[in-house]
Write a structure and sequence with these properties.
By secondary structure, this protein is mostly helical. It is built from 10 helices and 3 strands. The chain folds into 2 domains: 15-78, Orthogonal Bundle (Arc Repressor Mutant, subunit A); 82-218, Up-down Bundle (Four Helix Bundle (Hemerythrin (Met), subunit A)). The protein has a 3-stranded antiparallel sheet. It is globular.
Length: 232
C-alpha cells in the first residue's frame, strides 16, 4: 500500500477513505507511534486536500479510540493505559475465538488458499525483516474475519486489531520482533480441517503468546512518555 507522506491523493477512491487507510497502515507498520502529533495543516498540504477533510478523518480515528484531541494542541495518536490495554486484549481474545469458530464452519478451499498465501508472505517478510510484516500479520486476522461471513464481526475485529497495535507499540518488551507465522499456519490447518476446537485452542495460545510479549506496567507506559514524537 502507499506510504503516508508526500503523495497527493488522486483517483477514484474517496479522499477521506484513502487518507484514513494510509494513516492506519502507518500505525500498523509502526511508522506512527503512540503520542505522535498529527498536524492537520501539514497533512492537508502533503495530500493536497482541504483541511476540513483531514479533520473528518482524524475525528473518525478518534471515534475508534485511535486518536485523541488535546485542547489547544491538536490530534495525537492514542497511548493506551494499562487498564485499557488489558481490556482491549480481553475483548479481542474472545471475539476472535468466535470468529475462528465460524471460519471453520464456513471456509471454502479458495479461502484456505488465500490464508496460505498470506502465511507465505508473512514468513517471507519476517525473514527479510521488512517493515510491513506487522501489516501482513494483522491481515491474517482480517482474512479470518472475512471468512466468518459476518460484517459486524469483521468491523469489530478491524477496530480491535488497530487498538492492539497501539498497545503493542507502548508495552512490547525489548526483545525483538515477535514471530507468530507458525501459529498462523497451525490455525490455517485447523480451519482447513474444520476442527473448531483445535482452532480455538490455537487462537487462545496465540493470544497468550502475544500478551506474554508485553510489559503491562505503569512504569513501561511512563518510559515511553520520555520520547518526543512531535513531528513539528
Amino acid at each position: 500500500m502507499d506510504e503516508v507522506a508526500g503523495e497527493k491523493l488522486r483517483g477514484k477512491h474517496p479522499v477521506e477513505d484513502v487518507l484514513y487507510n494510509r494513516l492506519m497502515d502507518a500505525i500498523v507498520d509502526k511508522y506512527l507511534r503512540p503520542g505522535q502529533h498529527l498536524n492537520e495543516v501539514k497533512l492537508a498540504e502533503k495530500y493536497d486536500v482541504p483541511r476540513s477533510r483531514v479533520r473528518r478523518v482524524l475525528e473518525r480515528l478518534r471515534d475508534e479510540d485511535v486518536v485523541v484531541f488535546e485542547l489547544h494542541r491538536g490530534a495525537f495518536i492514542s497511548r493506551p493505559t494499562v487498564a485499557e490495554a488489558k481490556n482491549v486484549f480481553q475483548v479481542r481474545r474472545h471475539l476472535e475465538e468466535l470468529v475462528v469458530s465460524l471460519a471453520c464452519a464456513r471456509a471454502t478451499s479458495k479461502d484456505i488458499a488465500i490464508l496460505r498465501d498470506n502465511y507465505l508472505r508473512e514468513r517471507e517478510a519476517f525473514e527479510a525483516l521488512r517493515p510491513n510484516v506487522n501489516r501482513i500479520a494483522a491481515e491474517f486476522h482480517f482474512l479470518i474475519a472475512k471468512i466468518a461471513r459476518n460484517e459486524i464481526l469483521e468491523q469489530l475485529v478491524g477496530t480491535f486489531i488497530r487498538r492492539c497495535v497501539l498497545v503493542q507499540s507502548v508495552y512490547e518488551k525489548k526483545s525483538g520482533i515477535l514471530c507468530l507465522s507458525e501459529e498462523h499456519r497451525e490455525m490455517i490447518d485447523a480451519i482447513a480441517a474444520k476442527d473448531s476446537g483445535a482452532a480455538i485452542r490455537m487462537m487462545q495460545h496465540h493470544f497468550d503468546h502475544i500478551v506474554a510479549s508485553l510489559e503491562l506496567t505503569k512504569e513501561r507506559r511512563l518510559e515511553k512518555d520520555v520520547y518526543d514524537f512531535l513531528t513539528e
